[in-house]
Amino acid sequence: MRMVLGGVLLPNPSSFKRSIKPNESNNITLGGVMYTDFINNRRSWRITWETIKYADYETVYDLYFSQYTNETYHYLQFDAYGLYVPVKIELSEENIKHNSVLIKDFYIDIIEANPFS
Amino acid sequence: MQSVTDSFNNRARGYMRKLAWSVSIAFLKTFNESVGFFTLNSSLLDGGDLLKPAGGDVVQEWDKYNFVDYTSRLIDVSWESQFEDISSANSAIADIVLDNSDDYFTPGAGSMIDGYILPSRPIRIQAGFGSEVIPQMVGITERMPIIDKKNKTATFHCIDFMSVLFNREIGETSIYQNVTIDTVLADLFAQVGVLPSQLELDTGLTTLPFVYFARGTKLRTAVLKLVQIEQGKVFMDELGKIRFRNKNNVPTVPCWSFDYDRDIIDVETRKEDQLINSVTIRGKAREVQSSAEYWNSVESYEIGPSESIIIWANFDDPVTGVTTPTYEAGANSSFSVNTQSDGGGSPEASDVTLTDFDLFSKAYRMEFTNSDVSNTYYITAISLYATVAQVVANIDIIEQDDSSIESFGEKSLEIVNDFFQSEALAQTAAQDILTGYSGYDDIYEMSVKGNMALQLDDVVSVNLKTSYNNFRITRIVNKISNPAKFTQIIKLRSL
Q1: What Cα–Cα distance (Å) separates residue B437 from each residue in B13, B274, B353, B495?
Q2: For residue B486, what is the nearest residue in chain A, using CA coordinates?
Q3: Which residues from A are below 8 Å from B when comparing CB atoms?
Q4: pLDDT reading at B57 higher than 50
Q5: How far apart are CA B135 and CA B127, in angstroms?
Q6: Contacts of A46 (CB under 8 A, 6+ apart)
Q7: Which of B25, B17, B15 is nearest to B73 (CA)?
Q8: What pLDDT is recorded for position B34?
Q9: Mind telling me how many Å the CA of B130 is from chain A's nearest CA?
Q10: Which residues of chain A lie closer than 8 angstroms to B266, CB-CB?
Q11: Cβ contacts of residue B85 below 8 Å, gap of 6+?
């Protein structure tokens, strides 16, 4: 499973989960009937590493911060699913173990910039 | 209700409704006269021509501005319209909030439109479901935008074009005889720049013998006085077309329904707060009379050798015509000239002539010239025959609903309007008002699963389980905001 984020090949993750979040509002009438007004949907992915080397963690960390220093999103390329989309990266907490050599239970959320209908 | 496709209405009823909207603004206010309706095989794709909306048959002048689409920057948009008062006109306002993180809308920030971020920029709002958007409002930005530095937004408050037109003044004194209201309305709107193609006017039910508006009268004042006569309505629809509905052209059949279970999110009911059980109408009805002696000079006017003088005759009543005065004409407009100011000298019949004249609604300007190079003369008398719109009746009627007064106390309305030409006409109008407002009718204010095709004056049926009735829409408030929330609040009045 080869994933490239911002031109950087990511280390193989423990899991790669996709979620879809709708841009919608649910409304309830007086009779309890629900209807939904929506605009579109947005994909996001959670890439999890149960264990990641600190050097690889720093690479991901640098990618995250370069969003802000370069004022731009990175592109996620994931050929297995035919993805090449601009995304925003959000970091989880660090759980540093073993004298700063390994990071455990680290994940990033990457959120697609453009919605789909 | 705006004409829409069945699929639009089906979407409005659906469980899953994909919202759609667009906002465009013509900051530069450039005009494209060649804009027309899109024609297959002829119009340019993505060109200026417009997709013809269902029921739209004329490209409105407002559509010909070069609008720029700002939909991608839209954060929040709300628009509302309501009838202001009894037998009146509607007004529409809107507020749009646009993303301004790049200071595009900040005056002085140097964006492409800097210098054009000014009040009175044309704006067009459309909204709908799926791929079908329909017009909601055409108007102008009322003021400079409110720039929120913290949230990086620019908010524009907008009013519809009707509000702009209503603030304009009638450019010339306007007198009409034996006309219906629609004829007067067409002329008044033309005076403030509206083309006939932008109007759709019912024929008025009443022929008015005499109508008079002084120059400088606000269009709003003039229009409301006219619609008062027939309890009609004047409004601008979502396409920007100005409509007059006489009181017989009122929808009575429901075009949409709201059901407690399916459509109603919240409802407040109360009684009518504008109770009227006593109506007084006062006015001075005028009719144009046959030509008769109307004005006489009270002084003598000296006119020197080779001199011209201007003499004004000011009238108390509006005048539609004055017979041009000629020298000692007898039983008609005339003037007399003498060598002495008291008329005791010799008459002078040839050297002093009327060389120019102008009729205004309440004045007549005369220019006399003395062609004698040596002698001074005196215009000792001027008599003008005119067709005068004189007061023929002082209308002063009062109509009351005694049982309503007994129950609720007297709640009175006074109307002063000189265009009620007879007591019968005034009594009919008063009775119409009493019929509509002498009881505490039900007012419903409902938050509903909305349909953007609804319009003011539409009749809708409402099923609240405990009651089932038809109502008329008197106010609509629409709002689209994040996340994906479309709110429609309608105010209803029982028929």
Answers
A1: 33, 7, 62, 11
A2: A37
A3: 22-25, 27-39, 117
A4: no
A5: 7
A6: A15, A16, A17, A19, A107, A108, A109
A7: B25
A8: 62
A9: 9
A10: 30
A11: none
The answer to whether B423 and B288 have CB atoms below 8 angstroms apart is: no
- For residue B53 the two structure tokens come to 């909306």
Among the partner-chain residues A25, A29, A38, the one whose CB lies closest to the CB of B263 is: A29
- The HSE-up count of residue B134 (CA atoms within 13 Å, CB side) is 21
Q: pLDDT tens for residues B396-452?
A: 999 999 998 998 899 999 999 999 888 998 999 999 889 888 887 778 999 999 999
A39/B266 touch (CB, cutoff 8 Å), yes or no: no
Contacts of A37 in chain B (CB under 8 A): 17, 19, 484-486
Answer whether B267 touches A (CB < 8 Å).
Answer: yes
Q: Is B40 on the interface with A (CB under 8 A)?
A: no
A-chain residue closest to B130, CA distance: A39
Contacts of A39 in chain B (CB under 8 A): 18-19, 483-484
Q: How far is A27 from chain B (nearest CA, A)?
A: 8
Q: How far apart are CA B95 and CA B125, in angstroms?
A: 10
C-beta atoms surrounding A10 within 10 Å: 22
| Nearest to B198, CA basis, from B134, B229, B244 | B244
Closest chain B residue to the Cα of A40, Cα to Cα: B18
Contact between chains at A29 and B485 (C-beta distance less than 8 A): no
ipTM: 0.73
User: Mind listing the pLDDT tens digit for each residue in B311-368?
Assistant: 999 999 999 999 999 998 777 899 999 999 888 888 888 899 999 999 988 999 999 9
CB contact under 8 A, A37 and B485: yes
Contact assignment for A30 to B449 by CB distance below 8 Å: no
Calculate how close chain B gets to A2, using CA atoms only, in Å.
Answer: 34
The pTM of this model reads 0.80
- Residue B269, chain A, CB below 8 Å: the answer is no
Helix %, strand %, coil % of chain A (to 5): 15, 55, 25
Residue type for B392, please? Answer: V
Grade residue B60 by pLDDT with cuts at 50, 70 and 90: low
The minimum CA-CA distance between A115 and chain B, rounded to whole Å, is: 13
Interface test with A, best of B10, B13, B18 (most A CBs within 10 A): B18
- Quick: pLDDT tens for B207-216: 888 999 988 8
The tokens describing B243, both together, are: 């409509």
- On chain B, the residues whose CB falls within 8 A of the CB of A31 are 259-262, 264
CA of A80, closest CA in chain B: separation in Å?
Answer: 31
In the predicted model, is pLDDT for residue B481 greater than 60?
Answer: yes
Task: Answer for the pair B59, B37: CB distance below 8 angstroms, yes or no.
Answer: yes
